[in-house]
TrEMBL record:
<dbReference type="GO" id="GO:0016491">
    <property type="term" value="F:oxidoreductase activity"/>
</dbReference>
<keyword id="KW-0520">NAD</keyword>
<keyword id="KW-0288">FMN</keyword>
<dbReference type="InterPro" id="IPR029479">
    <property type="entry name" value="Nitroreductase"/>
</dbReference>
<keyword id="KW-0285">Flavoprotein</keyword>
<dbReference type="InterPro" id="IPR050461">
    <property type="entry name" value="Nitroreductase_HadB/RutE"/>
</dbReference>
<comment type="similarity">
    <text>Belongs to the nitroreductase family. HadB/RutE subfamily.</text>
</comment>
<dbReference type="InterPro" id="IPR023936">
    <property type="entry name" value="RutE-like"/>
</dbReference>
<dbReference type="Pfam" id="PF00881">
    <property type="entry name" value="Nitroreductase"/>
</dbReference>
<dbReference type="InterPro" id="IPR000415">
    <property type="entry name" value="Nitroreductase-like"/>
</dbReference>
<protein>
    <recommendedName>
        <fullName>Putative NADH dehydrogenase/NAD(P)H nitroreductase SAMN06265784_113166</fullName>
        <ecNumber>1.-.-.-</ecNumber>
    </recommendedName>
</protein>
<feature type="domain" description="Nitroreductase">
    <location>
        <begin position="57"/>
        <end position="197"/>
    </location>
</feature>
<keyword id="KW-0521">NADP</keyword>
<keyword id="KW-0560">Oxidoreductase</keyword>
């Protein structure tokens, strides 16, 4: 589905050409200035790729080691730089860190996720703001993107879910880049989380991520992955 037909345009021409031209001119100038200040992107080291992908695991047990609020702020700032459609940024993040917060979460957790979530230093509720489009005048200022969504509930739901899920994925990888371990979970009662944490707001729970320093002794064996040929093709 084309999320923003006005942006791409029927004949490939974007709307509000004047505004976009000045935007692209500014963008070109910015790129030009960057070409003097930014070195060519390079493949990360094997050590970095191991930490983020090859050796990173989904954790079920946690060391008794807290995470500083400053690290949670740094993590969130990295996540918010990841791309979302029309820069819509529907993800909202509640870092449940206190015993009171964990008790509010407890009734919503599935049995298999209960113990490890209560033990994790932090549990992130990845939420999605169903009124994300009201912020588009700030986040996507060069086009009137808000009107693409107003009254289109299907597009709103698809965009909120797709992009907040992506932002949750960015959070997992950013956490690993900062030396943290994660344990994402969809085994919970979203209606209970919404009532406990998002009552009276336009935010709904998408999924949960335990965050901390993992206990390797509680890992399950790594499950197999598809090969390139099983999951991908180049056409
Ligand atoms: C969106 C999502 C939801 C998940 N839900 C649960 C869950 O509710 N409970 C659980 O124990 N594991 C859950 N997992 C963990 C996956 O089973 C795990 O990430 C996968 O088997 C890969 O494990 P590995 O990263 O250690 O290789 C979830 C993972 C993701 C990404």
């Amino acid at each position: 589905m084309n999320e923003n037909p006005g942006y791409y345009g029927e004949n490939g021409a974007p709307p509000h050409t004047g505004a976009l031209l000045s935007h692209s001119t500014r963008y070109a100038a910015l790129l030009f200035s960057f070409s003097f200040t930014r070195t060519t992107l390079m493949t990360l080291s094997d050590q970095a790729l191991d930490q983020i992908f090859r050796e990173a695991r989904t954790h079920n047990g946690w060391q008794n080691k807290p995470i500083d609020d400053a690290v949670l702020r740094q993590l969130t700032e990295l996540v918010l730089l990841g791309p979302t459609s029309a820069n819509s940024s529907p993800g909202r993040f509640v870092f449940v860190k206190t015993p009171e917060g964990k008790e509010k979460l407890r009734p919503a957790l599935s049995a298999g996720n209960l113990e490890k979530t209560m033990a994790a230093p932090v549990t992130v509720i990845v939420g999605m703001d169903m009124a994300f489009y009201e912020h588009l005048p700030k986040l996507f200022p060069h086009a009137d993107a808000r009107i693409w969504f107003v009254g289109n509930d299907r597009l709103i739901a698809d965009t909120a879910f797709r992009n907040s899920t992506l932002q949750g994925g960015y959070l997992i990888l950013a956490a690993r880049a900062l030396g943290l371990d994660t344990g994402p979970m969809s085994g919970f009662d979203a209606a209970k989380v919404d009532a406990a944490f998002f009552a009276g707001t336009s935010v709904k729970a998408n999924f949960l991520i335990n965050l901390g320093y993992g206990d390797p002794s509680k890992l399950f064996p790594r499950s197999p992955r598809f090969s390139f040929d099983e999951a991908a093709r180049i056409v």
